Amino acid sequence: METKPVHFKNVSREESHGYDRKTLDYIRNAAAHGLYEIRGMGAKRKLPNFDDLVFLGASMSRYPLEGYREKCVTKTLLGTRFAKKPIELDIPITIAGMSFGSLSANVKEALGRAATEMGTSTTTGDGGMTPEERQSSKTLIYQCLPSRYGFNPDDVRRADAIEVVIGQGAKPGGGGMLLGQKVSPRVAKMRTLPEGIDQRSACRHPDWTGPDDLAIKIQELREITDWEKPIYVKVGATRTFHDVKLAVHSGADVIVVDGMQGGTAATQTCFIEHIGIPTLAAVRQAVNALEDLDMIGKVQLVVSGGIRTGADVAKALAMGADAVAIGQGVLVALGCNGETYYQNGALHAAEADYTAIGAAPGFCHHCHTGKCPVGITTQDAILEQRLSPEVGAKHLRNYLKTLNMELTTIARACGKQNVHHLEREDLVALTIEAAAMAGLPLAGTNWIPGQGF
Amino acid sequence: MERLTFDLATTSLRELNTFLHTDAKEGKVEAVTVVNPDGAHNIAVGLDCPISVEVVGHAGYYAGGMNKSATITIDGSAGTGVGENMMSGKVHVKGFASNGAGASAQGGLLVIEGDAGLRCGISLKGGNIVVGGSVGSFSAFMAQAGTMVICGDAGDALGDSLYEAVLYVKGSVKSLGADAQYEPMTDADIATVAGLLDKAGLDHDPKAFKRIASQRSLYHWNADANQEY
Amino acid sequence: MCGIVGLLVKTPALRERLGELMVPMLIGMTERGPDSAGLAVFGQPLPESERKISLYSGLTEDGADFNWLGLSHELKSHLGVSAQVEAKGNHAVLSFGLAPEVVKRWVKEHYPKLHILSTGRSIDLYKDIGTPAEVAARYGFAGLKGSHLVGHTRMATESAVTPDRAHPFTAGEDFCLVHNGSLSNPNGIRRMLEPRGISFETDNDTEAACRFLEWRLREGDDLETALQKGFEELDGFYTFLMGTPDKLALIRDPFACKPAVVAETDDYVAIASEFRSLAHLPGVKHAHVFEPAPEEMYVWNA
Q: Can you give the residue ranges of the Glutamate synthase domain (chain A) (predicted)?
């Protein structure tokens, strides 16, 4: 008898790299809506970052300091070039500019309290200064943005420094968005907008274009504040070498360089993922520019965009930053993407609220919806109660303390009595990409890709 | 002391502004005259008292910037960003004004007797601007609140992406920007125009103006897609 | 990013004072352009058969001690041409009765580090790094005479601070251009022109605009048509000021983000990025002062 061979249907499971599930989703969404996606947070793609660098701790050739006992200075001065009253910070870790509007008033207050306790600064955002954050922040940096929402001379005079924002790492060249759900009555009033509308922010300042004009704008801000307050200039990282030089020419006291990992409350995904360069590449370009102009120590550099850990801080400082600014990490410390929130003395599950907005803890980038399940990026009267200023401040203080301990312990291990004495020769790179971008030798070699053998 | 004269040919701008922020604020003078401005930038910026400042000649960028309460008159022309972010008071330019006049002004009155350049009243947030001549392209771009009265013509894309600001134009408009539309003049509009012309000291028939305001179709970015972002 | 100045005198008597009137204009633009400065001055043209070239020796080993007379002797012995030399330190104007390409080719071959700044019958060109005041003093700008000039102070954006990257840029003969702003497609323009035999000396965005417009003029466009094509092809932000032997021309892009002010009297037309560079001019208080409109062409005849 003849036996019939069993015939198995062979189903191919080979996923296309070009048309993977993410891309298929993207095309289907585009076809369904005719609009680009807007979301919060920063770039999600894998990028060379500070994890690709390691420190050469002290050993035989250099001598370490004792981890807890021997002093390691973290004091940081910003704005020493022209301002009569430079910013003095106890730690080189600052809070990045995030708006009231994208964040709740409670969160802004929490940031201020924690920063004040830790002797560092916090920063306003697009939409102006709230009395809560001014009151809670010992040192407050006031942003002057293209939209000028809520920008006014009284707050300029109340601020400790002014930060002229030219761009953001998440979206260099683009303006922001604040979707209607977050334009609450209070936000609307501060920004002079109708309630509940989708707010569009400008990409360019209304009264100047280019560094030659910025020089005059900076002079105006100095004249208004009688040359007391430092003027920061913040750029999103792209042509950072040139931009930093031009910011120096324009008269900046402090330059903030925000790499592409930097977060946002609501921006086109195509900007977040496709415009800008990684922080690792930007910090080196910025330092090169300052060295070229002999401005090291005269104009300070603040680096932001994907600074998460004390090791990141230490590496940024070693690369040449005077301080770092943290946004997303701060929000995570407050509970962003957590499974629970703490309210009325107890923990509550947030899972259902994540599900309702099509997200899950650990995967949420839905700041733009204003329905933050843990009460951070929201203007909703009920949701915002999920984060009280006290609880938020406690967690943030702990986070900043941890970062600072890690920073100093690394600095001591490298034999430094001052964290600002970390230098780029204390670092080597683990990957060729990181070595090329940061201009550091590949570990165990003296090879810096792109700089000869 | 009633009136004090500052000669910018011999006195620094910093001295002038510091005086206006301190002694003037304490009420030590009622009026200041600035001679030989010669296009200097940032004249009388950040004032915070009801003083009167007269600039005899041409001013550079940001004259009267961020003004509160003061009355600043410029006999000549004004550079970029005159009266930018004004909160209250008055800035009066007798000549022409460059780009971005009255940018982001939240209050007060900006009068430009001559023409204004591009982006006049950009991001306006509540101030009133009266232009005796014409305005350049992209004027009132993203203007959020406040009023502009334009006695001459307007360039391209007038009122692009307007929010709640209202514009009145007497002459021709080269083109309206996205989301701007003509609307009928009501009695209230005519009264508004007449009142502002009167304050500006300009003589025009308020009935001859057209009203332009937002269609509000950009207010909701995705109005017809169930807000699915 | 920069400051621009231009001056055209209508009254012939003022030609003697052209440089003197201009120096404060240039210095007034120092904050807009502290890196480097330069200018092109147009005077009485040489006879039809003669040409002059402006040369810069600052990049050669001898720098300001360059042996200009030696150069003219070599030209005599190699090419048989008698060249008049007017030298001042690292700068010289060589005039001669020969096709300029022959002389320029010889110079490039024998003195590759000698930079040729301009070619023509009317134009003399000076540019160098340093503040406007330093550059003006170095070359005695105050003593320059002529009918009109185009000047510039530079704050470098994307290309380095070097003498050859300072403005004005020239292309062809008796044409120069200065720029305030930043082009967003200079490399595309460059790649379009290179296959047409047009070579570039720097990576500066302004050079792309200059060579594009000169190419159009050489292809037979009149200035107006060439500039119209410029509006279509050159993307980005710009205020351009251009000089030809008998004209001064100004255009601004449609957004006109970069400033420009004009003061005109019966005696002169003066142009600058800001009024502070015009404030010292005689009779400016009674001048017709205005801002040029975007996308309009302003042409003044010498």
A: 80-337, 363-416
What would the two tokens of residue B78 be? 């004004």
CB contact, 8 Å: B53 with chain A? no
3-state secondary structure of A183: coil
Q: Touching A: which chains, 3+ CB pairs < 8 A? A: B, C
User: pLDDT tens digit string along A159-206?
Assistant: 999 999 999 999 999 987 788 888 999 999 999 999 999 888 899 999
Return the CATH architecture of domain C46-120: 2-Layer Sandwich (3.30)
C88-98 pLDDT tens trace: 989 999 999 99
pLDDT band, residue C106 (cuts 50/70/90): very high
**How many Å lie between the alpha carbon of C86 and the closest alpha carbon of chain A?**
35
pLDDT, position A179: 84
pLDDT (tens digit per residue) in B41-53 = 999 999 999 999 9
Task: Compare CB distances from C274 to B60, B96, B138 and report the shortest one's residue.
Answer: B60
SS (H, E, C) chain B: CCEEEEECCCCCHHHHHHHHHCCCCCCCCCEEEEECCCCCCCCCCCCECCCEEEEECCCCCCCCCCCECCEEEECCCECCCCCCCCCCCEEEECCCECCCCCCCCCCCEEEECCCECCCCCCCCEEEEEEECCCECCCCCCCCCEEEEEECCCECCCECCCCCCCEEEECCCECCECCCEEEECCCHHHHHHHHHHHHHHCCCCCHHHCEEEEECCCCCCCCCCCCCCC
Q: From its phi and psi, is residue A107 left (phi > 0), alpha (psi between -120 and 50) or beta?
A: alpha
Token pair recorded at residue A183? 């334009």
Q: Which two tokens stand for residue C69?
A: 């007379």
What domains appear along chain A, each with residue ranges and CATH number? Answer: 50-438 (3.20.20.70)
C157 closest CB neighbour out of A209, A215, A246? A246
CA distance B39 to chain C (A): 4
pLDDT tens digits, one per residue of C31-57: 999 999 999 999 999 999 999 999 999
Domain spanning C2-44+122-301 has what CATH number?
A: 3.60.20.10
Contact C258 A210 (CB under 8 A): yes
Of C34, C181, C237, the CB nearest to A249: C34
Structure confidence by residue, pLDDT tens digits, A195-221: 999 888 899 999 999 999 999 999 999
Q: Could you tell me the pLDDT band of residue A35, with boundaries at 50, 70 and 90?
A: confident
Chain C residues with CB-CB distance to A216 below 8 A = 31
Give yes or no for residue B228 having a pLDDT over 50: no
What is the spatial distance between Cα B25 and Cα A24, in angstroms, rounded to a whole number?
A: 64
pTM of the model: 0.95
**Nearest Cα to A330, choosing from A142, A136, A161, A97?**
A97
| Two domains, one topology: C2-44+122-301 and C46-120 | no
C-alpha angle with apex A96: A91 to A97, nearest 5 degrees?
Answer: 140
pLDDT computed for residue A320 by the predictor:
98
Q: Is C12 on the interface with B (CB under 8 A)?
A: no
What residues of A are in contact with residue B100 (Cβ under 8 Å)?
A: 206-208
Separation of alpha carbons C205 and C160, rounded Å: 12
Share of chain A above pLDDT 90, in %: 89
Residue A7 confidence (pLDDT): 76
From chain B, pick out residues whose CB is under 8 angstroms from the CB of C293: 136
Chains within contact range of chain B (3+ C-beta pairs < 8 Å):
A, C
Please say if C210 is a catalytic residue: no
CA distance linking residue B189 with residue C230, whole number of Å: 44
Strands (E), C184-253: 236-244, 247-252
Q: Where are the domains of chain C?
A: 2-44+122-301, 46-120
- The arithmetic mean of pLDDT across residues A312-341, rounded, is 97
- CB atoms inside a 10 Å sphere around CB C302: 19
